[in-house]
Amino acid sequence: MATSVFQETVRQFVLSKEQVQKIIDGLTEELVEGLSTTDPKNITQQPSYITRLPTGKETGLYLAIDMGGTNLRTAAVHLLGDGQVGVTMEKHEITHELKTGTGEAMFDWIADCTASLLKNVALDMGNADLHMGVTFSFALHQTAINRGKVLAMGKGFDLSDVMGHDLKDLMEGGFRRKGVPVVVSAIINDTVGTLVSHAYVSPSTKIGVILATGTNAAYIERASDVSKYTGPACDQMILNTEWDAMGKASYLPQTKYDKEIDAVSLVPGFQEFEKMVSGLYMGELVRLTLVDLIERRGILEVLDGKVPESLKDRLVFKTLFMSTIESDSSADHSAIDRVFKTSFDIEGLTSEDRAHIFELIHTVGKRSAVMTAAACAALLQKASGASVNLDNANEITTIGIDGSVFEKYPHFAHKMMEAMTDILGKDRASRVRLELARDGGCIGAALVAMVAQSGGAV
């Protein structure tokens, strides 16, 4: 009985070809809709105002800032040509006091951090202004390559006098007050940074993806198809898809556990795709499933149907635990005993329990890989004819992927590639490369600053 309950439950996370195709079709429909919509509630398909990728030959020294939810990274990026870079980087924690203070205090602090970097690299340009690219991992209504109005920030930020203001003006205000000779030449999203920076290293890169706590993607689209773009005429445009905000229950294969995660989230019905694939939620999916299985006596019969207090709090089963367990290749999955004893004070697991827990974790992880592959396939399909041609046997298309889930989760890249082969067919999939991309925020920002400052097509 217990085994049948378990198998019936885990089977919900195994996707059929039909379900995968529905995801591709649904996301493609939302990608197309995002090209034209002017609804302020629809934040997808944001024009980056970047109209070309680097060639890998660019050289020069540019400053960069990567501002995320936890840390601020400042960097001096030396573009050396031939896809080579030298980076001097400093990392600074953004404290709760800064996050909830005034905008002026925040941007003065950013200027101080930049001054620290300049001192560290002994950079003195005399009276010449230094050009900086900024990666801003928050919602922004971009109006030019170096301008954008700050929208809702989230991630614990509650700054006064920032919302609705132009980020370039806010940044440069801090630099002026602190006497730091820096001009903001470019502002980009972290996913756009991933695409641009990896294209410098691998010129065949046409898509950038982030798969970490959250997920997002950027790609190259025909400018003529982006009807909501009102900037200078151009042939193509890098778009920040904000695919994290995509996903509708009508086509996503949600289990009751997915629906529960969505229901108790800050904004139910929003970011439903992200809630099924990203690092913040994978462990919680496993926890909810375990709790349900324990109550239905489908697993861990030693608990006699009673869920321990250690498993009752949201997000206590980390995706890191999944990674640790899938990393253990031993026949008896001994890592499961260690994780459950150390983190949840649960002992007495049988060999069947360990096999079942491993199967559950493997299946949830694989579903994330398959759904991410489906989303990439939707982008490849949308970009076909614009920047991608999978029917040309001599052309390779690279997808640069940054983030802890892709980099550190065991066999994730392999699972994605298997799914891409199932979706695209062996021949077309053989022309796609999935490559790890790193430091996209700083290197990408520096590259775009270079393109903007040199008068390139932006």
From TrEMBL:
Keyword Chloroplast found: no
List the protein's name: Phosphotransferase
Using the record's annotation, list all stretches that form the Hexokinase C-terminal domain: 206-451
Looking up PANTHER family in the UniProt record yields: HEXOKINASE (PTHR19443), HEXOKINASE TYPE 1-RELATED (PTHR19443:SF16)
Domain spans labelled Hexokinase N-terminal: 7-200
Q: What does the similarity note say?
A: Belongs to the hexokinase family.
**Species for this entry:** Lunasporangiospora selenospora
**InterPro entries cross-referenced by the UniProt entry:** ATPase_NBD, Hexokinase, Hexokinase_C, Hexokinase_N
